[in-house]
Amino acid sequence: MRHIRNLSLLLFSLFALSWSHIATADITDLDEAINKAGRQRMLSQRIVKSYLLIGQDIQPDKSSSQLTESVALFEQQLGELESYTKTPQISGQLKSVRKEWKEFRKLATEKPSKDKAVELISAGERVLALSNKVVQSLEQQSGNPKNKMINLAGRQRMLSQRIALYYSALSWNLDQADLQRSFAQAVQEYDEALHELRQAKINSQDINAALDKVISQWSFSRSGFQLMQGQSFVPFIIATTTEGMLKNMETITGLYESLQS
């Protein structure tokens, strides 16, 4: 118990990760479009995770701020992507995202309850799937391997929040099948993609150094996830740990975007 309290204090500052530094301006190129479209996937999971934490009265003020910021950023970036997109295919995909987003946003901003939480998780899955189609379509517009890496690194941001989402759902004991499987799958996918990123030939020294740091931290975090299974749930620690993962992958995604084509 003392170890958990100490770890909570050590990780506390990570929980306050803010997106106020993210540039909200017109998208100027494909690299930026892929990065922002990829960030939408993360926000879909982050919104649900924040809702689940509020429902369990876990850092309610910070969780509420996180949810509000995430909703605002998703809305802002959706508008930017709609303004940037010129192709009928992607415009159609964004219309689908917009339609699903309206219902998702309504659910997410209501007072949290267990019954609505299950509904919100399903709605979040739909927004995630539709947002992912947009990323894939944008990536296909270019044969540059750099854009694949922007997509892959950006997806890690989503997985960090997906891990926290499903752990939080488990801790709330929601009546939904396959929560444990979804949690384990997100952990596995994060691990596999992290090593794929490290092996990419286009990596700069800065990217490799950042990835090495993440891999080292991930080894510790993953062992912690495994130790917690079957024991008392500690969603605050998982939430703060995954905030660190998110922050690191946001930086790395930006490094890939900054690479010269």
UniProtKB/TrEMBL annotation:
As for membrane topology, the entry says: Multi-pass membrane protein
**A Pfam cross-reference name:** PilJ
Does this entry carry the keyword Transmembrane helix? Answer: yes
Q: Which InterPro entries match?
A: NarX-like_N, NarX-like_N_sf
Q: Which UniProt keywords apply?
A: Membrane, Signal, Transmembrane, Transmembrane helix
Q: Where in the cell is it found?
A: Membrane
Task: Report the superkingdom from the record.
Answer: Bacteria
Signal sequence interval, chain numbering: 1-25
Per the record, GO CC terms?
membrane
Q: Which residues form the NarX-like N-terminal domain?
A: 32-117, 146-219
Entry annotated with the keyword NAD: no
What is this protein identified as? NarX-like N-terminal domain-containing protein
Query: From which organism does this entry originate?
Result: Hahella chejuensis (strain KCTC 2396)
